[in-house]
Amino acid sequence: MTEATKERIPLLPERYPTPDFFVCDFLDAAPKGDMASMEHPIFSLSTKPDHRIRRYDHGATYIEIKPSADGLATVHDRDILIYCISQLMASINAGEAVSSVLHFKAHDLLKATNRMTNGQGYEALKAALERLSGTRISTNIITGGQETFETFGIIERAKIVRETREGRMQEVEVKLSDWVFNAIQQHEVLTLHRDYFRLRKPLERRMYELARKHCGKKEEWKISLSLLQKKCGSASTEKEFRRLVTKIVEEDARFQHMPDYSVTLDESDMMTFRSRGTVPSSQGLAPAEVRALNPETYNDARVVAPGWDVYGLEREWRSWITEAPYDPNAAFIGFCKKWYERRGRP
After folding, report:
1. What pLDDT, in 10s, does the model give residues 166-220?
2. pTM for this structure?
3. CA dist., res. 145 & res. 183, Å (int)
């Protein structure tokens, strides 16, 4: 493939192509999104400040989203929520107690979501935190089997705990809304493909979220273009929305860039999402899907996790991972290190 061809691929470059970035460390968890905000168009597709008040009714449920002076939280702002959910789910899967208050390094979030780590990246992160906190939701959506009638921010608050000498945020504290935290505790989340963060267009990201929620591991899912526009929360005209979707369909036919699902649009304005067979099982990967470890790896595991049964740790690791690692040996050693750091000797 030539450099010119690479430039035409409709994906952002993978800025941090570290093997096993989402697998080898408890803190570098597979990206996950909550089902409620994947189903409903909470986040704006606009790249400019969006000050529209939006209400969506679906049967007996409704959701109303009100912006702050900074505008509605955007689809790209959602990256922060995905990162927080991913960290909490990794801790829950490791048997640890979790809280709605998270502490993390801003640099780690920027890398995990494929963002730039320069000054522009940090300023964009700060602006995203302000929009997430300022966007208010009124809803009676049911999460965790409970019907709620509440008004809340997507995140309750954000705090820069520590800054560098240059004034760049270093450590961040975020308190999630009870609505989001309840969904996490009820495991109402779905694993997302890591290339989600490489999708350039907000509409592509929203289309992927809907396919992940409704198609899942099924062979295909169909939806009319008009209903897709409603679920995306697009403010475009019908003609403009069709043009935008058609462009994405044409690019996917050429580059197969949409994660997990191919997309097509027929003459009757019916969208079809077809599974590429890459969605991980909710029960984790079968052991056969990850190749056997090298004999030396077990010796290395005994060094980083002294006292533990390395074969028992391997079973834990294989049941925990949700996607095949690029280098299983390095991923397993990273898992054992974190296991020992958090638990010490047996």
Report:
1. 667 788 999 999 888 988 888 788 889 889 999 999 999 999 999 999 998 899 9
2. 0.77
3. 10
The arrangement of secondary structure in 199-275, i.e. its CATH architecture, is Orthogonal Bundle (1.10)
Measured in residues, the chain has a length of 346
Q: Which residue, among 78, 53, 57, has the nearest Cα to 66 in the 3D structure? A: 53
Place of tokens 């003459």: 267
Residue 71 makes CB contacts below 8 A (sequence gap 6+) with: 44, 46, 48, 49, 50, 51, 131
For residues 8 and 257, give the distance between their C-alpha atoms in angstroms, rounded to a whole number.
11
**Under 8 Å between Cβ of 271 and 228:** yes
d(Cα 27, Cα 241) in Å, to the nearest integer?
Answer: 38
Domain boundaries, the chain: 13-195, 199-275, 287-343
8 Å CB contact between 209 and 33: yes
The distance between the two most distant Cα atoms of the chain, rounded to a whole number of Å, is 65
